[in-house]
Amino acid sequence: MGISRGRGVWWGVALLLVFLLAACSGENKEAGGPKPAPDFDLVSVGGNHVRLSKLRGKVVLLDFWATWCPPCRGAIPHLVELQQKYRAEGLVVVGMNMDQNPDDLTEFMTRTSFNYPVVRVDETTRTAYGGIASIPQAFLIDRQGRIRYTFTGFSPQIAAEMETKIRQLLEEAPGG
Q1: What is the pLDDT of residues 119-170, one digit of tens each?
Q2: Would you place residue 4 in the very low, low, confident or very high pLDDT band (cuts 50, 70, 90)?
Q3: Domain for residue 129, yes or no?
Q4: pLDDT digits (tens, 9 = 90+) for 28-73
Q5: Residue 1 domain-assigned?
Q6: 169's torsion region: left (phi>0), alpha (psi -120 to 50) or beta?
Q7: How many structural domains compose the chain?
Q8: What is the mean pLDDT of residues 106-111?
Q9: What is the full DSSP assignment across 148-169?
């Protein structure tokens, strides 16, 4: 009896993991195809305006994160690497910080190297992107300004899938 119960728990956990992994990332498959990414105009930590619509023609990776989130912090070196590797081909990474206290971000930025803009997300932008219930969450936007892929969480597998999808979008014809 104990073996049967243990096996049932194991299968339940395995099934839950399959559903979680399936939900963690993937193509935006809503009816009607990819949806336009909501525009925003936010100020970066460096004081520059970042407006999504001005990045049309580029492949954009929006990374929603916070300084208190270990997986978010773990993703930063990967995002820095992606920005460096694919910038010349048209990739733009934008860090979308969700910290409540702006001082937390300012202090974190003094200790961490970024080669991409980091903006503080306002409530309007957060809501426009579905409320962002968990972080890190990234939206990969094609050259036409459409959300093509979303990634929730960060792991080596998600990092590899993210890079594969970035390469695919960079290789698409501009009108694709």
Answers
A1: 999 999 999 999 999 999 999 999 999 999 999 999 999 999 999 999 999 9
A2: low
A3: yes
A4: 444 457 999 999 999 999 899 999 999 999 999 999 999 999 999 9
A5: no
A6: alpha
A7: 1
A8: 93
A9: EEEEES--HHHHHHHHHHHHHH
d(CA 28, CA 85): 25
- In angstroms, the Cα distances linking 66 to 24, 56, 69, 104, 155 are 18, 26, 6, 9, 17
Helices (H), the chain: 2-24, 70-86, 102-111, 123-128, 156-171
CA gap 73, 114 in Å, rounded: 11
**Please, what is the angle between helix 156-171 and helix 70-86, to 10°?**
30
Let me know if residue 15 belongs to a domain: no
CA–CA distance, 77 with 58 (Å, rounded to integer): 21
Q: How far apart are CA 67 and CA 105, in angstroms?
A: 7
Residue 148 sits in a domain whose CATH number is 3.40.30.10
Residue 12 included in any domain: no
Query: Which single residue is written with the structure tokens 């993210």?
Result: 162
Q: Which residue has the tokens 């939206």?
A: 139
Please, which residues have CB within 8 angstroms of residue 63's CB and are 6 or more apart in sequence?
72, 75, 79, 93, 94, 95, 96, 136, 137, 138
The catalytic residue positions are 69, 72
